[in-house]
Please model this.
Amino acid sequence: MASERTATEDRTLLNVFGTLVAVTAFLLAAIGVVVFVNKDATTSSATAAPVAVTLSEYKIGPSAITAPVGGKLEVTNNGTMPHNLAVTNGPKTPDIAPGKSAVLDLSSLPAGTYEVTCTIPGHAAAGMKGTLTISNSASASGSAAGGDTGHAAGGTPDYKAMDAAMVAGADAYLAAFKEFGTGIPTKGRGNQLLEPVAGPDGVKQIDLTASIIDWEVEPGKVVKAWAYNGQVPGPSIKVQPNDRIRVTLKNDTPMGQDIHWHGISTPFGQDGVAPISQPLVQPGETYTYEFTAPSRPEMGMYHPHNGGEISVVNGMYGQFQVGEVPLPTGRTISGIRQPDNYNVTQQMPMVLNDAGNLGLTLNGKSFPATDPIVAKVGETLQVTYHNEGLQCHPMHLHRVKQLVVQKDDWALDSPYYVDTLTICPGERYVVLISPAADEVGIWAWHCHILTHAETDKGLAYMVTAMVVPPVPERGRSAT
Ligand SMILES: [Cu+2]
Model:
């Protein structure tokens, strides 16, 4: 979808970035705090109650923590992925799962001011940094029970600043779309179509290399992603029923690999679950899968089975499609007559993730790096949602309805319309989106778990847009 960007584009980008950087700098100035945690809170003879500290994506609340000498912090993870709290050169909590807490004992620290961070790679750079001031007189001033609300430390949220950030972010996104036809440009695009051609032996060859790469999830935020062929999601593979397929996997990661063809009917020996159906493919090794594609259409995904809690959430996944999805042409669904031929102009995966180094992403990117999708009146967009994360996500598209035609590999006997479709881990759904003449505009398309779509800096994470041209001016109706 998105093309390589040029030097000219990069220059223009700088303008967009200028705005974002200014906004970000302003917001970061309002954050900043310190925290630490420790699991062993057993002996708490200290009279002072622990100071409450919260962790979330990607902040520490409050950002300026105050605690008495000999005190403790009670650190709660209100986020959606593991976090920790570490005093630089001091004590640290273990990684805390979402919804869990840990106590960090500060008794080893003399009075002074310390830096605190989350030490999970990328999290401090993304904003999980703060200060901890330990003093003899302090009575835990930064410690409202229940933690912060995710806003400025210790007081009323700065709603004006939040609004300003939201407007600036959304404007920059729309400007980038106008300029480049993408979200705010970032390096790398996933889901690049791989349609293998049969060789002389009649077998379609697919080459996949697994490695750890630098991946720009959102402008300026580069994380260590685990990837196939250097992209997140990996190549979108499409073959036809009964094709003979050979997949050569080269493992350039430090962990044993295998590839499970999730949802695709394969013989046992090709199921990709080491060590049950195959040996583990060791670092540096190459391994070959070969099987005949099922005789009926199937919509699957491929990912490692071994160590998936590391490699899959960090980016090793892709769509694997066999044949064409059967469409309910000519039928009447909820009183709406379906066309005899859908004008399908785009087939696209929408891969959901919410964990690992990538965090809350659509197709490997977080807003504002997510590309808007253009669908003209009279066209049909065929989207396959794949959930490769750890949570269910209710994906909501404003105004234009989604017709659910397939669940996993199975075409539905009774397709149905939704405006919000919940996709849980491992699931796939195929939807058709056919904008009508009175549905022109720019429509938000996002996960409706609100903390997956917004922060106090504005729209974020699992948000994209569907653009149905011609777009009326802001605040104007088309009709
Ligand atoms: Cu979500």
